[in-house]
Design a protein that fits this description.
The protein is mainly alpha-helical and 148 residues long. The protein is built from five helices and no strands.
């Protein structure tokens, strides 16, 4: 496991970059949904949103999530980095799981928009847009402060 210690700074940097890309997409996609919900199905505007949402999810959000989880698992497996008896890591992992669940719902709603079957008003997506932000705050506080 000495390779983990040697590569730790690079793995950590790649993890942070991947998380930033994941969060950028997770904050932007529901904002697109807000505007898409008000677009007339089949309109040029609606079709443009469909393209933007698909590309954002497939080209940025999905790969960034995979990279975040991969590099995060490597970091979690680095000897001495995580004390598993401390509570902060479990709260962080719970918040990361919540982010994964939000990601799942965002992907599902994107498919509904693609089929012109959106069931939610713009206000719903305005509220949902806050979920990734709250989870991000929890994750950063747990990692940076380790309050317990």
């Amino acid at each position: 496991m000495s390779w983990m210690a040697a590569w730790y700074p690079w793995i950590k940097a790649l993890h942070i970059i991947a998380v930033m890309a994941w969060m950028a997409g997770m904050l932007y996609l529901p904002r697109l949904f807000v505007y898409h919900a008000d677009a007339v199905p089949g309109s040029v505007q609606s079709e443009t949103f469909k393209t933007m949402e698909r590309r954002l999810l497939r080209a940025i959000i999905n790969p960034a999530m995979i990279a975040s989880l991969l590099f995060g698992l490597i970091l979690a497996g680095t000897p001495g980095l995580v004390v598993w008896s401390e509570g902060w890591i479990w709260v962080k992992l719970g918040a990361v799981s919540g982010l994964g669940i939000a990601h799942h719902f965002f992907a599902r709603w994107r498919k509904e928009f693609a089929l012109d079957r959106n069931r939610h008003p713009a206000g719903f997506y305005r509220k949902v847009n806050e979920v990734p932000t709250v989870l991000l705050v929890v994750i950063v506080v747990m990692v940076a402060v380790k309050p317990f």
